[in-house]
Amino acid sequence: MNTISYGILGIINAHSSSGYDIMNYLKPFREVKHSQIYRTLANLEKDEFVTSEIVEQADKPNKKVYTITEKGKEVIEEWFYQPNAPALLRDEFVLKAFLVGLQDKAEAKQLFNERIKYLEKKARVCNERLDILKADCDGVLTDFQTLEFGRYILLQQLLHQTYVDIRWCQWVLDLLDKDKLNFLTYPF
Amino acid sequence: MNTISYGILGIINAHSSSGYDIMNYLKPFREVKHSQIYRTLANLEKDEFVTSEIVEQADKPNKKVYTITEKGKEVIEEWFYQPNAPALLRDEFVLKAFLVGLQDKAEAKQLFNERIKYLEKKARVCNERLDILKADCDGVLTDFQTLEFGRYILLQQLLHQTYVDIRWCQWVLDLLDKDKLNFLTYPF
DNA sequence: GCGTTCATGTAACTGGTTACATGATTTG
DNA sequence: CAAATCATGTAACCAGTTACATGAACGC
Asked: Looking at the DSSP assignment, which residues form a beta bridge with residue B98?
């Protein structure tokens, strides 16, 4: 089984969910397309890790809600003890930053100034999501054994990583303005 | 053309390189397997963005060195002005952190304590690579228009992102020890 | 001689994306 | 009545991984 299968199974274990629900849970932390989720759910059901039933909704289209089986609980329990696969980052900006020397100074500065704008927007989205989360919990986080706790800590991580990235971009812009570069200590 | 093709082409533009060289340049910032690089290089040559020649080496096996063509320079120049594809992060730890509530407190703490160990090792590797870079440049970074500048700024980024991640893990461990959680401001 | 680093390639597979396809319900 | 959101699926394609395959040069 692959990582996304475990992630989906874990969410269903936390509470029974539809493919659409799962997509929305995962989106903030893991890019995922609905086509992949529905395909994976079909496989999980085929392997008897989950069962499904149609739940009729009055105000919205009906949904197919998946529930974990005993067999599914066993594999998810085991997964937590397995070592983590190395993280995979694929970021076009990182490649451009690495190759920044191919550009002239004005182009280079533009690359980082645009990045700052992008990151500031990302930070705003994070803060908005934190506000939504607070509203979802009526302002109180009582227990860590909820999916809300996971959402909360990961949103905080994302937010502060973004802040560091912004400061890093500003540091690079300062470097680009210097006549004589050197191996400067990163200022924080 | 995909992102990795542009990255490889950009490196060859900076200076003519073999597949093996390219792999080592990319490794610290972008996980990539040699099989993908050699396949991509063959495609870039087929499309006449690069040319190749065998360079004989006395002390090592011969290598196939690729050089960019005029046609290749045009596409790489254009690439810099294109908007960046959204970054893609796939991290098994993030999924486990999201689902941390499925575990008991002891297991949860273990997850983050192990993560800290992993991140501390990552920070050490970053610092080692920074030392190697300094040695490669004889202690002086004169110009931003070198691949060394790109290596330098990205290693600094990675290092400081890692430091923030460590502090974040410690914050989560503190949270897990609290009896009454709440939406605490992240302490920095 | 054995392990490591340097060096290059191909073939099969699979995870993930893009595009195709449909339809209910709500809000403006 | 149009757009947005909710909701679910399939098929074709391709990027990237894993495994297979080879071999030179060097240090111990």
From this structure: none
Q: What is the mean pLDDT of residues B162-179?
A: 94
Contact between residue A72 and residue A12 where contact means Cβ atoms under 8 Å apart: yes
Strands B63-68 and B17-18: antiparallel
> Model confidence at A187, in pLDDT bands (50, 70, 90)?
low
Are A98 and A161 in a shared domain?
Answer: yes
- Determine, yes or no, domain membership for B45: yes
C-alpha dist (Å) from residue A77 to A6, A9, A13, A80, B1: 10, 10, 10, 6, 41
The shortest C-alpha distance from A46 to chain B (Å) reads 23
In this predicted model, what pLDDT tens digit does every residue of A32-84 receive, in sequence order?
999 999 999 999 999 999 999 999 998 899 999 999 999 999 999 999 999 99
Residues of chain A with C-beta less than 8 angstroms from the C-beta of B150: 97-101
CB atoms A147 and B85 under 8 Å: no
Q: CA-to-CA distance for A103 and B148, rounded, in angstroms?
A: 14
Which CATH number goes with the domain that contains B36?
1.10.10.10
Assess if residue A123 is contained within a domain. yes
Q: How far apart are CA A152 and CA A169, in angstroms?
A: 26
pLDDT of A134 > 70? The answer is yes
Q: Which residues from A are below 8 Å from B33, CB to CB?
A: none
- Residue B186 within any structural domain of the chain: no
Q: What's the number of domains chain B is made of? A: 2
Is residue B122 within 8 A of residue B162, CB to CB? The reply is yes
User: Which of B25, B100, B182 has the most A C-beta neighbours within 10 Å, making it the best mutation to test the interface with A?
Assistant: B100
Q: Name B50's bridge partners.
A: B68
First-residue to last-residue Cα distance in chain B: 42
- 3-class secondary-structure state, position A48: coil
Nearest CA in chain A to B91: A87
